[in-house]
Design goal:
Layout: H1 3-10, E1 17-23, E2 26-35, E3 44-51, H2 60-74, E4 79-86, H3 90-98, E5 102-113, E6 117-127
Parallel strand pairs: 3-4
Antiparallel strand pairs: 1-2, 2-3, 4-6, 5-6
Length: about 130
Amino acid sequence: MTAEQAYDIWVQPAPGRTVVTHDGETILGTAHMNTNRPGPGAHVATASFMVAANARGRGVGGALVGDALDWARGRGYAGMQFNAVAASNTSAVELYERHGFTIVGTVPGAFEHPTQGRVGLHVMYAEL
């Protein structure tokens, strides 16, 4: 994908938010957050995260998750929902659980992992 395509997918227009954490010129991670669904579901936020491989284990993901939760609370959302957390990404699942998220359901085989084959996708939720 081109940089323009990635920008269009990742950067959220207002009232959503996109953040980047860095060390000098080195990008460590990024997050974006927005309303999960419009209309009757607009009281629930969502967020997505990416952390550079060389920044993992340094608290970057936790800082991004905390920032997203603070953003959602500050805007009066009732909860935050993650729609697709790969079950194979145990580090992310554990991180989200430490921040108050629970797995509310799993879609079996919905994620095509490059080495593990099809794995489940969790839906995770935290009440705010």
